[in-house]
Design a protein that fits this description.
Elements: E1 5-8, H1 16-20, E2 29-30, E3 35-39, E4 42-49, E5 52-56, H2 63-69, H3 76-82, H4 87-95, H5 106-116, H6 121-135, E6 138-141, E7 144-147, H7 152-156, H8 160-163, H9 171-183, H10 189-192, H11 197-204, H12 212-222, H13 233-244, H14 250-261, H15 265-280
Antiparallel strand pairs: 1-5, 2-3, 3-4, 4-5, 6-7
Helix pairs in contact: 4-15, 5-6, 5-9, 5-12, 11-12, 13-14
Length: 290
Amino acid sequence: MTDLGLLIKDANNFEPYQVFESGQCFRWENDGDGYAGIIKDKVIKVKKLDRDILIENVSKEEINDVIYYFDLDRDYNEIKGKLQFDAYLREAMEYGSGLRILNQEPFECLISYIVSSNNRIPQIKRVVDNLSKMYGKPIKYRGKTYYTFPSPDVLANVQICEVQESRCGFRAEYICDAAKRVAWGDLDLSALKGQDYFTAKAELMKVKGIGEKVADCILLYSLQKYEAFPVDVWVNRVMTEIYIHQKISLKKVGEFARERFGNLAGFAQLYLFYYYRNKRGGVTNDGGIN
């Protein structure tokens, strides 16, 4: 601990740019001096200082929350060692050496990935930010106002037409349905952590707007189901080009990945996605592709 917050010395496997620009989260903002976001209704600032990482505005009592969110008690060198058998993945892990999976708040993650369906990252960020400004609570930090993500109870009591003002389009119906399910106890997100991957996935897919890929994202990025292997257009391309060499269903691609990478499939997915989309795909500054 320092006067400014938590300092991680010689931080291996933690590059803020890679973590926050990897497509797994949508509410961390680069203000030119680091990344600012909210963990448990508290504004947190993450800076890279040479080989160190400074996480500002953290008290001693909040250290465990930060450790959990950034997955700091996991040995990523061990994970990389177990995945070294795959030559292409070795290259991807070297390229995205600072990636790590964030343990996001489950309801925020649920709604964010419902918004992500058939959507570009800049638009996803805009909608999630709009929802927070419309229904979240304001927090002042260093002269700037941030907003918490709205609770299930709040969104459950909002009309679909009002949610559409966030520019989420047809997804407003899905957002309202999901919020009601969580607020009313039909979907217990905390209970899903204790269920096996397939059972938890089946429960998520009962919610309108949640298919295979969205369910896997929620499972991987908030419920610690590391067998999950979300397959979008980029992941499908890399798996088809490098591993499978034929067109198969996205569901079959996920099954192939789980068989190849086992319970580390989610980590493999993050490295492969980041590498293929950024180095091979030609991503533009607005989140589109060349």
